[in-house]
Amino acid sequence: RCAPPTFPQTRRVCIVTRSSSATPPSFRMMRRVSLAVLLLAAVATAAPVCTPISILNSDFNLNIGMPVANWSYVDIFSIRDHAALGARANGHTVASISTTTIDGNNFLNCGHGSIFNQKVVDSMVLDHVYNFSVLAAAAANSIAWAKVYLTTSPQNQAQNIAIISDFTVTTTKLSVPTSITQWTKITARITVDSTLAGQPLYINLASLRDNATTALVAYDTVLGTDCGEPTTTTTT
């Protein structure tokens, strides 16, 4: 911008100014740009999808007595178990104890020294998590011991098939009910690593009290889910 000369000046005086668009960007503006870039590359991780596992005769309603439909059986202590062994109707009574089921239907009387098992997965998938739960109760007038666990093949009489689990598997003590049978939920879970991937999966329902003929374990309502890997998505 130039001003006209004034006496005694003979030259015009010019003042040069910078355009405001040439000023460096402020810190606030730079931060906004950075946030915008981050938002354009957002990563989201969804929870794993869990689907029910089909367990055959999971509520033991297909028949009464032995053999129990769809379940294999092994006597782990002797060649014979209690006479009440097998699928039994709601209200079945042994030694003055009537086993009352939650759904009003059958239950499994697992005796005092037996295992019932079933293959529940044909081929385990790497990084999948398999979850199971089952209800257990004392089915007679002595304290019973129950054990629910997973293996890659059916358990045998020697019980030397290794247990696979995400946690230590213990025996559950089932106290004698005073009136209606009180059910306890027992859970089992395995996360599949490279040594287990591709192998089958079996659930085992055991009774472990061979020294008392009226220490009987009742099982009911076996449930399972297969949970896959978490899904990660990136949006830009």
In short:
The protein has 236 residues and is mainly β. Helices cover 6% and strands 36% of the residues.
Write up what this structure looks like.
The structure is a single chain. By secondary structure, the protein is mainly beta. The protein is 6% helix and 36% strand. It is built from one helix and 17 strands. Strands 4, 6, 9, 11, 14 and 16 form a six-stranded antiparallel sheet that branches. The longest helix has 14 residues. About 4% of the residues have low confidence.
In round numbers, the mean pLDDT is 84
Q: Tell me the major beta sheet.
A: 6 strands, antiparallel
Low-confidence stretches: 33-42
Helical amount among residues, as a percent range? Answer: under 10%
Terminus-to-terminus distance: 48 Å
SS strand fraction: 35-45%
Gyration radius, to the nearest Å?
35 Å
Q: Quickly give the structural class.
A: mainly beta
Following the backbone from N to C, one meets helices and strands in this order, namely: EEHEEEEEEEEEEEEEEE
Described by the principal axes of the CA atoms, the overall outline is: globular
Keywords for this structure?
single chain; mainly beta; 6-stranded antiparallel β-sheet; 1 helix
Strands, helices and their partners?
Layout: E1 2-3, E2 13-14, H1 27-40, E3 42-46, E4 50-52, E5 72-75, E6 86-88, E7 93-94, E8 97-98, E9 107-109, E10 114-121, E11 129-138, E12 144-151, E13 172-174, E14 184-191, E15 201-207, E16 217-227, E17 231-235
Antiparallel strand pairs: 1-2, 3-17, 4-16, 5-10, 6-9, 7-8, 9-16, 10-15, 11-14, 11-16, 12-13, 12-15
